[in-house]
Prior knowledge:
- A three-stranded antiparallel β-sheet has the order 2-1-3, covered by helices on one side.
- With 306 residues, it is mainly α.
- Helix 8 runs parallel beside helix 10 (166-174) and helix 10 runs parallel beside helix 12 (208-216).
- The protein has helices at 8-15, 20-27, 31-45, 51-61, 64-73, 94-104, 123-129, 133-141, 156-162, 166-174, 198-204, 208-216, 231-238, 240-248, 270-276, 282-301; strands at 78-81, 86-87, 110-111.
- It has a domain at 6-144.
- 51% of the residues lie in helices and 3% in strands.
- ANK repeats lie at residues 152-184, 194-226.
Amino acid sequence: MSLSTLPTELILLISSYLYPTDLNSLLRTCSSFHRTLTNLLYHLACKPKYEKAALYSSAATGNSTLVSLIFKQNPDLTIFDEDADHPIPSSTPAEKKTDLALNLGVSLILRYPNKHKDLYGDGVSYAVATNRPALLKQLLSYHADPSCVTPSGQTPLHLAVMNRNPTAAKLLLQYSANPDEKEFEGPNLLSSAFGPTALHRAVSNNDLEMVKILLEGGASTEVVNMFGKTPWFLAVQIGVEVAEALRDAGADINAKDSRDYAFWDYPMSNRVMRMLDDPYLAKDGERARRSRVRMEKLWMDGSIGA
C-alpha cells in the first residue's frame, strides 16, 4: 500500500514522530503531502530544539518559505560571511538573511548567540556533532563538503571519531571524505600539516570499531602526527586489539618518529608484548624483548613507577 493512500489523520500521526529534516523530505515527495504537512513542519521547525537543523535542511533544499520563517522566529541566528570573515549583523532583515542562506545552500555557516567561536558552524559538522544522521545524509546528498574544517581545526570525520559515531563516519567515507585529513594541533599553526588524523584519534580512544571503519575506508597507517608518530606508535601503548588491526592492515612496525625512535624505544602494554613475542613472528618478538629491557631499565632508574 502506498503511503500517499493513508488517511490524513494517520499521516499526521506518523509525521509527529519525525524530525524536521525527515518531514521536509517527506512533504517534498508529492503535492498532497506538501499541503498536509507544511504547517506541521513550520510549527516544528521553529521550536528552539530544531531550528538549526531545520535551517540547514531547508537552505540545502531551497525551501525559501521555511528559511524565511525560521529567521523571523529566531532573529539572533546569524549567518557567517566567509568573504568578510565575520558574522553579518544580527539586525540584518530576515529577507536578506533568507536570500543569503538560499544562495549558500549546503555551504551555509551559522554563528549562534553568545558564542564567540562556534565549533559546529557548518551543517555537516553540526549534523555529526548532534548525531543527526538524516540531516547529514541529506546535506551530503546535496553535495555538501564532507571534509570541511571547523574553526577548531577538526573535520567532520574527526568529530565522528571523538563522538564515537560510527554511522556518521561510514556516511562521510561513503561520500568521499578524506580519511587522512589532519586537524589543527594549536591556534598558532597556519596549516594542519602536523595534526593527528582521524585514525590517530580512533587509536587513542582504543575504539576498535572506528579503527576498522577508517581502515576499510582507505585510511593510511603511515601518516604521522606533529611528533612524527604513525598510529602504530599509539596502538602499542593502548591495546592489543587496535595494534593487531593496524598490523594486519600492513602498518610499518619498524617506522621511526621525529626523534628517530622506533616503537620499542617506548613502554608498551604487556599484552602487546606477548602479541609481538609470537614465535611465528621472531623479528617482532625481538622488538618486544627490546622494549621490555628498556622498561626494566627505566624502572630501575626510577623514571617510571613500579
